[in-house]
Amino acid sequence: MTDTRANMETAVHSDAPVGNQSHPAYPSRAPVSRLLIACLFWGLCLTLSAAGHRLYKATVSLDRAVSADTYRTSGVPIAWVGHGAVEDSYQRIVGDIPTNGTAVARALPNSKFWLAAALVYSALGGVMAWSGRWIRNPDVQSLVGLFAGHLLWLGAIELGLDAAGRRLGLAGALEVVDDRVVGTHAAGTLIQLSVVFLIPLLIGLTMHESNRCAVFQWFRRRLPN
What we know:
Elements: H1 2-13, H2 31-66, H3 68-71, E1 80-81, H4 86-93, E2 106-107, H5 112-131, H6 138-168, E3 170-171, E4 173-177, E5 180-184, H7 186-193, H8 195-207, H9 214-221
Parallel strand pairs: 1-3, 2-5
Antiparallel strand pairs: 4-5
């Protein structure tokens, strides 16, 4: 009883936070070690970003080859293309069309391969993100979260928003595909518009105490009380 009471008094009078407000104790490292870890982390992030871009380009190339018959059909007429008028963008690129081509200023139609790739990448990223709750090691959890975030971005944002933009007649640029002028990169247009929702979302994730993401926890610990 005496030991138990002493331990309770020590816990009450100690400066360590208790309850849900406690933070895990991080081992102190030398500045050089912390710098090397930071460089390794951001190097891994840049490498994953480059690999994600290469995966996106490979998916686009494979989609153009597999869905060639689908892309010979007419898509939705382009309503808006990035920055500027559709007519101006069309006139800048129309000179690159061969003489036997047919100029059609329409968005690419959605192919089955494009929609399937968006669903597969999004589902795989979602499963990886959900599996993080059963991972006890925070370092492995962060690594899995990096891969999950890249797959979710590729599937739901890059491919998913592009599919939605094709249906809406949006385009980030005009390209020549199979001797036709078509609108591509619709996701870029919708991503620019999504900043209206991104800022409140980041603020909410930063202020939400139950968010276990290491990046948001780092920002939360450094916010003024």
